[in-house]
Prior knowledge:
Elements: E1 6-9, H1 15-26, E2 30-35, E3 47-51, H2 57-71, E4 76-79, H3 94-104, H4 106-122, E5 125-130, H5 143-163, E6 168-173, H6 181-184, H7 197-213, H8 218-229, E7 235-236, H9 241-251, H10 254-264
Parallel strand pairs: 1-2, 1-4, 2-3, 4-5, 5-6, 6-7
Helix pairs in contact: 1-8, 2-4, 3-5
Amino acid sequence: MSNSKVVVITGVSSGIGRATAAKFAQQGYRVFGTVRNSAKAQPISGVELVEMDIRDEASVQHGIQAIIAHAKRIDVLVNSAGVTLLGSTEETSIAEAQSLFDTNVFGILRTSQAVLPHMRAHRSGRIVNISSVLGFLPAPYMGLYSASKHAVEGMSETLDHEVRKFGIRVVLVEPSFTKTGLDTNAPHAASKISAYDDERNIVLQAIQKNVKDAPDPDGVATTIVDAAVGAWGMRRPPKGQASLLSKLRRFMPAGPIDASLRKTFGLS
Length: 268
């Protein structure tokens, strides 16, 4: 792909989405970044902001059609928008789980379905879905977030098989802890069960420490750009911890992986 291509990135208000939009723009691509409220969004040099709520079908359709009307094409869709939730699985209400999936899973489904007719007509395109190492690993007290990313992985792999005959490919990018506000400012399950208090607090402290020590989103953004415009590969874990975890999951026995994961989250 040349840098005359049009790139659409969801969730560019902060974090990985914002860093990715800036990196594409720096490399000369025409970039559209979606935000839920354009009046409150901070501008990004070289990025055209589009108001779009991925939880709303009409908003997604309107936003994607507006981009096509302006740019006449969409070559790359990066599904970066996402939310998380902290709390034990037992504490998480069905409504909270549904809200999480509405963004992390159905949001990707809505945007992908909106761009696919256009990509099919042009017989080309790349969809990059931002998953997580929690798309192939469990995470104590982040069970529904992990479940949503597992769902993204299954949907993405399946979609790639369905659309490759049209010249379209789907890629997963699987970051580990990244220094953004996603985890440190994550909402908590509203209903608390006291039996989980001690371990939940230990895990929350471990998450905060891991995020504090994590790399900035620039490295993940570099991986996303490579995934979008480079040679196709189904999985693109960024360099560092994410890449290591991906290899360990594939080649190490389950016991050591389990022990290492519990240690990471501060559990005995």
